[in-house]
Design a protein that fits this description.
Blueprint lengths: L2 E4 L2 E4 L3 H16 L2 H5 L12 H20 L6 E3 L1 H8 L10 H14 L3 H18 L10 E2 L7 E4 H23 L8 H19 L1 H9 L12
Parallel strand pairs: 3-5
Antiparallel strand pairs: 1-2, 4-5
Length: 228
């Protein structure tokens, strides 16, 4: 698959699967960084997350995919990526105390209980499986992939991988900053689709004028044009 179509949101690049695998490989390396291991029990840069909980949440973006591919395909509706972000996502803009954020944090902390070495090893093993699995999954028709909490709907595999790519790239910066180390340098084919997707989400949240000002006019820029 050479690109992901989200209605008027389009990205064309060397492939979302390749980008996801490369981002996942970088994350596996980051999970094993001594500074991350040392900071495991400390508060992270994200409110109410420990460094370990943030690492667990981020590693889950890799760990879930082979498990979902091994499970029977969901029977429900396959929604577009545009529909996913416009009508299905419930966590964007929600307070950290909301039920959805509490559930996400608990999942990250549960994964962190494994400890840094075991979590990095599991993520690495999942990545090895995905390198072997993903090339064999046809792009058409889309193989549906869904999370249990989605209750009867799913994304196509490559759309799902783009949402996980967003998580991996954003949380790589969060995790590195939390551990006091430089954010890993990722290649353009990994970061460009994430930046483009965040741009669309920023316009959705703040409007085109505010995003234009945030990117081009510091003197009139709003306080935030964050996409998520």
């Amino acid at each position: 698959m050479t690109g992901v179509d989200i209605g008027s949101w389009n990205w064309r690049g060397p492939g979302v699967r390749e980008a996801f695998l490369d981002a996942a490989a970088s994350m596996v390396g980051l999970l094993g960084e001594p500074a991350v291991v040392e900071a495991w029990e400390k508060p992270s840069a994200l409110r109410e997350y420990t460094v370990g909980g943030l690492a667990g949440h981020t590693a889950w973006q890799i760990l879930f995919v082979p498990e979902a591919l091994d499970a029977p395909a969901p029977d429900g509706e396959i929604v577009s990526l545009r529909d996913y972000f416009m009508t299905r996502v419930t966590w964007i803009g929600e307070d950290t105390g909301s039920a959805v954020h509490v559930r996400i944090r608990r999942g990250g902390e549960a994964a962190a209980v494994l400890g840094p070495e075991a979590l990095a090893a599991r993520a690495g093993a999942a990545l090895d499986r995905l390198r072997a699995q993903l090339p064999g999954v046809p792009a058409e028709p889309p193989r549906p992939l869904g999370m249990p909490s989605w209750n009867g709907w799913a994304l196509g595999l490559d759309d799902f991988l783009l949402t996980r790519l967003l998580e991996l790239v954003v949380h790589a910066d969060d995790l590195a900053f939390s551990a006091g180390i430089p954010t890993p340098e990722l290649p353009d084919h990994v970061t460009e689709p994430v930046v483009e997707l965040l741009g669309h989400l920023a316009v959705r949240r703040h409007g085109a004028v505010n995003v234009l000002r945030g990117l081009s006019r510091a003197e009139r820029a709003p306080a935030s044009i964050a996409g998520i």
